[in-house]
Design brief:
With 197 residues, the protein is mainly alpha-helical. It is 64% helix and 4% strand. It has 8 helices and 2 strands. Strands 1-2 form a two-stranded antiparallel ribbon. Helix 4 runs antiparallel to helix 6 and helix 6 packs antiparallel against helix 7.
Length: 197
């Protein structure tokens, strides 16, 4: 039981730091302190996120686990469909987002880190396709739901929701009325508009 509490705390700390380090007040402060070296921040941030994620993940694998639920052959089609939808949303999101900027590659050559407003591709129908894809993959991509997996799913479901709310505020501050109009036209998650074409 102690291991699960430790695991939960580690994941909560990871989620907190992952959001805190790219919060606007923090990035503004770091940009002022780091000057031209701030161009490396996104790349270093991504590297830190991946390494720390893997360390916690492998710690979780070392904990003796218990299966709570398993998909059966009769219900196997459900996770296959949901996982496929999740992967599709991730792929379409990657096509619409500037992946070089997301990974921190663009910033290596640019000091000015302005981001343009983009509503191409899947973003015409869903404001946050990656978050929706994340929800689907969290709850459907694994055959067995274990205690560890349940802990991860609950924490990351809450994290994704809070992340969505914070990102919405950030985008409203950044783009103002343009983004407010976009909010009224396009749903946060479910891309209903695809079926209206």
């Amino acid at each position: 039981m102690t291991e699960y509490v430790t695991l939960s705390i580690l994941w909560i700390i990871w989620c907190f730091l992952h959001s805190l380090l790219i919060a606007e007040p923090v990035t503004r402060y770091l940009q002022g302190r780091m000057k031209t070296t701030f161009r490396y921040f996104r790349l270093l941030y991504n590297m830190f996120s991946i390494v720390s994620f893997l360390l916690i993940y492998f710690y979780g694998l070392s904990i003796p686990d218990e299966i709570l639920f398993s998909w059966t052959t009769k219900t196997a089609l459900i996770p296959i469909i949901l996982t496929s939808l999740g992967l599709y949303l991730m792929y379409r999101g990657a096509k619409s987002y500037n992946m070089n900027t997301f990974l921190g590659i663009t910033q290596l050559n640019e000091i000015d880190n302005n981001i343009s407003f983009n509503i191409e591709g899947i973003l015409k129908y869903s404001r946050h396709p990656w978050y929706l894809g994340g929800y689907l993959l969290l709850w459907s991509a694994f055959v067995h739901l274990t205690i560890e997996r349940l802990i991860i799913n609950i924490i990351f479901t809450l994290y994704l929701y809070v992340g969505t709310v914070l990102e919405e505020r950030k985008l409203v501050n950044q783009f103002g009325d343009v983004y407010r109009k976009y909010q009224k036209k396009v749903p946060m998650y479910i891309p209903y508009g695809i079926f209206k074409r």
